[in-house]
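call fold(seq) -> tokens
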Amino acid sequence: MDLHRVEPGVWSVIIDGQQLEVAVEKDGAEYVVTIRGRTQRVAVPDPRAWESSNGDRAAAGVAKVASPMPGKIVRILVGPGDRVEAGAGLLVVEAMKMQNELKSPLRGKIVMISAAEGAAVTAKQTLVVVEADAD
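ret:
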């Protein structure tokens, strides 16, 4: 497969010697992809994004922040008892020479950190637990 950008939003794709023109347009959280007059909406989820429906948040307002992939803890940004805002950085995991900052999904207090700088972690391993503030 060979892929070249022709102009903004238009790509030339060559697959097995066959050339296709592909138009890609961002529409909110999705992309609209058009090939040979046929249009398809495509969602590309960010694996680093926290989703409240993923089961990590308990009914008591507790969120477990887990590593999205195997890697190494390079920096811990908070400590037990610290108060954090939603979206605040908690720690940094390095995987495949890329650093990913894991963020708090909610405003609250850090009740547990089960990671240490330099430690190897597995995918889906809980690293930090945040207890939500009562509103």
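Residues 22 and 38 are 10 Å apart (CA to CA).
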